[in-house]
């Protein structure tokens, strides 16, 4: 798969769906351009067994739930051990090892 800025909205949406699926199965190294123009390489995941426990926050009456973004992706950074996000259309390269052992993470 060659990631290119010339993709249509449909192609970007398909890529985002595909990437989300891969992130739920394996760690992925994502190279993307940050908003300040610098390049960032991040090893990240959405594998439930590698995520920190979910902190349940009390519901505040009258406050709308947080909307899920359609332009960015929220992932867990395996090196910083924190949640991070990146703009989907800023992705330049991804790599993963299918079937990677948990002890290599």
In the predicted model, the low-confidence regions spanning at least 5 consecutive residues are none
Main β-sheet description: 5 strands, antiparallel
| Oligomer designation | single chain
- What is the element string, with H for helices and E for strands? HEEEEE
Radius of gyration: 15 Å
Give me the number of helical elements: 1
Mean pLDDT, nearest integer?
Answer: 89
Amount of beta strand: 25-35%
Total strand segments? 5
The percentage helix is 10-25%
What spatial form do the alpha-carbon principal axes imply?
globular
Strand order in the sheet with the most strands: 4-3-2-1-5
Classification by helices and strands? alpha+beta
- Ends apart, CA distance between termini: 24 Å
Description:
The chain is α+β, with helices and mostly antiparallel strands and 105 residues long. Helices cover 14% and strands 30% of the residues. It has 1 helix and 5 strands, in the order αβββββ. Strands 4-3-2-1-5 form a 5-stranded antiparallel β-sheet, covered by helices on one side. The protein is globular, with a radius of gyration of 15 Å.
What descriptors fit this protein?
105 residues, alpha+beta, 1 helix
Layout: helices, strands, pairs:
Blueprint: H1 9-23, E1 28-33, E2 39-45, E3 72-77, E4 82-87, E5 91-96
Antiparallel strand pairs: 1-2, 1-5, 2-3, 3-4
Short description:
By secondary structure, the chain is α+β, with helices and mostly antiparallel strands. Helices cover about 15% and strands about 30% of the residues.
């Amino acid at each position: 798969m060659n990631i290119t800025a010339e993709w249509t909205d449909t192609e970007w949406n398909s890529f985002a769906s595909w990437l989300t699926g891969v992130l739920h199965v394996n760690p992925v190294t994502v190279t993307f351009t940050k908003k300040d123009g610098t390049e960032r390489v991040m090893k990240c995941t959405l594998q439930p067994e590698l995520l920190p426990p979910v902190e349940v926050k009390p519901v505040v009456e009258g406050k709308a739930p947080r909307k899920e973004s359609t332009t960015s992706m929220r992932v867990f950074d395996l090196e910083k051990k924190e949640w991070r996000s990146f703009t989907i259309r800023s992705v330049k390269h991804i790599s993963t090892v299918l079937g990677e052992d948990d002890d290599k993470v």
